[in-house]
What we know:
Elements: H1 41-45, E1 46-49, H2 51-55, E2 72-74, E3 85-87, E4 90-91, E5 96-100, E6 103-104, E7 107-110, E8 116-119, E9 127-134, E10 147-153, H3 156-159, E11 166-174, E12 178-179, E13 203-212, E14 216-227, E15 229-230, E16 253-254, E17 260-261, E18 289-301, E19 306-319, E20 329-331, E21 335-337, E22 344-358, E23 365-378
Parallel strand pairs: 5-10
Antiparallel strand pairs: 1-9, 2-3, 3-4, 5-6, 7-8, 9-10, 11-13, 12-15, 13-14, 14-18, 16-17, 18-19, 19-22, 20-21, 22-23
Amino acid sequence: MNNSCFFITLFAVSPFCSFAADESTSDNSSDTIYVYSSLNLKKNNEILLDSEELNKQIIINPADIFKSTPGVLSGESRSSGAIDVNIRGLQGQGRVSTSVDDTINQTALYRGYQGVSNRTYIDPDFIGEVDIKKGFYGGSGITGIGGTVNMKTISPSDILIPGDNFGIRLKGSILSNHSDYNRYTWNDEPSPKKESIFNGKNSTGSIVVAYADENFELLAGVSKRVRGNYHSGKKGFGANSYKLPGYLCRDEYYDDNGDIAPCPVTAETVQDAGYTIYPKGAAVPNTSENTRSYLLKSSAWINDEHRVSAVYSLYDSTFGETYVADTTTIDKGTTVSVSQGPNAYIRLARYKLGYDWKSSNPLIDLNFSLWRLDLRDRPKTSQKYIR
């Protein structure tokens, strides 16, 4: 084994001029300089998104909160209205634990050949903090082998200006890249046009009221999100323009009587659709959303060490979702098509009571919570059927 030594030489250069001292009085001795370095593993394995960071992002879907988190993303980000966290390739089946206000908030849903989705439903306007830990976390609370994502709902401190005890936050947006999902039938027909940005059919809005003093906090919020199917981009390698009866055909196909007919689904007749089966600029079916959300939370300090809290939230949504096994289907054995299916529905109510004891004794730090989830869902399990 060869031993190698590395030396670091430090130079200090002053930008100011000075006169040289007399050599007879100069002191050539110098103090020893120690250089230390350490690797901040916590910074690499943990990501904390606070309310200030979240407010900088343009969030249309809940999954958009992970735009700035390397190694962390969400599956079904445009077609489920939910968050299904993927950390470093690990996803589903409890591999990544996701919680909201320290309560389990995951719904397992069978998705055919795609596997199982672990969905978490929360309105992005009510997210105040996202704490992401990559890899197994051995600390207290819920954890998974892939990592842990703990989301906190907004608190009065996210709303109030320092020094004030009452405040109101209004938040809204209008969208211009969507069309009514009811106007979409099959993707081999001309795509519906985008809705006007001023008709209010594609918009989001929320209002949050907060109050806080030395011993009590109260927050209430209402949010509404409505949008139709979004339209795909116009650049890149996508499907060809629509050509009836089937835009995936290389050329018009004629039957034995000389009439135009759907082309057979064979390698010789079907046009390669590129990276997507959707033409450029066309509506993407099953990506609409109509969501109402409510949030009510309060906390009170009994004294300097004891605090009690309560949280109630309701997420009520009708949304489009794509069943992957039905992304491309065959109509009567000939035409490749994708249809606009019936929308799915979910109603998730969450209740939580909490108690904290922050004792002056360093050996005592108690956190106790009692929570309940009330879930009612009607997911899409195939192209034509709702469970």
